[in-house]
Amino acid sequence: MKKFQKWWVGLMLICGLGIFVSCTDNDNEDENPVVELLQDGEWTGSGEGRSGSIIAKVVVENHQVTQSA
Q1: Which of 11, 33, 49, 54 yields a CA-CA distance of 20 to 30 A from 25?
Q2: Nearest to 46, CA basis, from 69, 17, 62, 23
Q3: Are 21 and 15 in contact (CB under 8 A)?
């Protein structure tokens, strides 16, 4: 009976993996979608950290980050 249980568990794992893989999104229409989102310019942002305010600055040139602070 134990051999049957191992076989059954193995089959269920394979089926579960097949379902998981088939549910992933593999549409690679945009190979580099982030480039379109990076507009040239100087961008700043702020937020609250554990020790107070945090300010970040990023410079984007030719759709690539060139400086950050």
Answers
A1: 11
A2: 69
A3: no
Q: Give the integer Cα–Cα distance in Å for 39 and 33.
A: 12
Question: Could you tell me the two tokens for 36?
Answer: 């379109």
Nearest to 35 by CA among 61, 9, 10, 59: 61
Q: What are phi and psi of 40, to 5 degrees?
A: -60, 145
Q: Please tell me what DSSP assigns to residue 25.
A: -
User: Per residue in 4-60, pLDDT tens?
Assistant: 677 778 777 787 766 666 665 655 555 665 656 778 889 888 998 888 999 999 898
pTM of the full structure: 0.43
